[in-house]
Amino acid sequence: MPDSKFTVPEQELLKQKEYNELVKTVLSSRFSPEKPKAFVHTYGCQGNVADGEKLKGMLWEMGFDFCQSPENADLVLYNTCAIREHAEDRVFGNVGALKPFKKKNPDMLIVLCGCMTQQQCVADKFKSSYPFVDIVFGTHVAHRLPEFIYRRLCLGKRVYETADSDGNIVEGLPVKRDGAFRAWVPVMYGCNNFCSYCIVPYVRGRERSRDFDTVVNEVRDLVAAGYKEINLLGQNVNSYNKDLTGDKQFPALLRAINSLEGEFIIRFMTSHPRDCTRELIEAMADCKKVAKHLHLPVQSGNNRVLKEMNRHYDREKYLSLIDYAYELMPELSITSDIIVGFPGETYEEFCDTLSLIEKVKYTSLFTFIFSPRKGTRAYDMPDPVSRQEKGVWFKQLTDLQEKIAGERTAGMKGRVYRVLVEEKAKPDGFLSGRTQGNVIIEFEGDESLIGGFADVIVTNPKTWVVYGELV
Ligand code: SAH
Ligand code: SF4
Ligand code: F3S
Questions:
Q1: How far away, in angstroms, is 115 Cα from ligand 3 center?
Q2: Grouped pLDDT means (10 residues each) for the chain, 471 residues
Q3: pTM of the entire structure?
Q4: What is the 446 CA–ligand 2 centroid distance (Å)?
Q5: Element holding 27 (H helix, E strand)
Q6: How many Å apart are CA 176 and CA 405, to the nearest integer?
Q7: 63 CA to middle of ligand 3, Å?
Q8: Could you give the angle at the alpha carbon of 406 between the alpha carbons of 403 and 412, nearest 5°?
Q9: Which ligand is nearest to the CA of 192?
């Protein structure tokens, strides 16, 4: 495997294997013939979910099995998110709720990690105010989980590790995937964009890409193991291998994965409009296995606000990308993220976001009210509009999107879509899946279809779910 300055040395991983064995021995003498039970919960984005699957992989190798609630667990691990205040509040609340469980079972290990605990101030808060928490570590040292558990279990010390770092790439960690047919495959980590509102670059380190062939081989193995939907992940997949030549960049990666044998669908997120190129749109259009769905977060439709957000594109560039994408893929489904009430945004500027949404006709939107994040540039910007006022704008935005989404789904009536069948739906006998464009579709069918593809004709489209029948 090619070395980059970010690659964690083999030696470090071997050391963790030794800790793994030590922990395994201790646990098996304490719990045998049972296995200790771990409850793992991940908050936040799919990248964090992918990390969570590696944390579970490591716990599994140490001898843990998994349970569905924290109450009777021997270990509780929360893999946290720091993107908005609300996300952090939920974690503080959920950690607080563990206290009585720990009282009942003082041997319960409580472990916190992820983006929230990468912030020194948060790690310090857990240290001083949550003495029943055993282990706290940040994103850059997650592969050292066996060592941390060893230190707590065998040396009896609480652990705090939030080393500041540019980040790393760790290959070869065990993965315990949550799904049997949908897989998360990070292609890059970190972010260099420093959008003025965003905490991610501070908690995830510098942008770094995984080796091209390593990613392709991983996908090949997943497809051979029966995975039907491959989700390529990165905060900004368009800058994948930005410093290498074009034949190793993201469009080339899509083409290489598309040419692998087997029936499967390729999705990717997130594209940043600054780095989204015509080559990417052309690769999407050419590649049959790539879902015709583009998640292209615009954040705002106003150029002054975009500049203050440090997004490095304007409304015109964004709309020209959208025009080109619709030209090549008239059926394309586009989704986006929007921030309402960025500091200093006026109502008139917000209206530019509304008009952009009318123009693009998104399938769906992720909408957020601005949340100040300590350490980011926007945290200190004057923010005169009240939360209540922002709430009114927010409602205007979601009402408009509801109307657009309803119009879009109404146009699906009578058409046949190939969907990956994902799970049972209500009422009994119904199944649920998603179209390539990421619209939820429900229909009557036998459970045995779950995990495979089916052709479904839309008979009764509603705004957020369309109903149909198997063809
Ligand atoms: N890398 C992706 C976004 C990842 S974060 C991109 O650049 O598009 C997901 C979304 O959370 C962002 O697109 C943004 O809309 C929202 N977000 C990030 N920080 C936020 C903040 N401080 N307040 C409100 N929303 C925020
Ligand atoms: Fe955050 Fe911007 Fe990076 Fe996305 S591109 S993760 S919004 S800094
Ligand atoms: Fe949250 Fe970290 Fe993802 S802050 S959105 S879990 S990168």
A1: 6
A2: 79 96 97 96 98 98 97 97 96 97 96 97 95 97 98 95 92 95 97 97 96 98 97 96 92 98 97 95 98 98 98 98 98 97 98 98 98 97 98 98 97 97 95 96 97 97 96 95
A3: 0.97
A4: 42
A5: helix 10-31
A6: 36
A7: 28
A8: 150
A9: 2
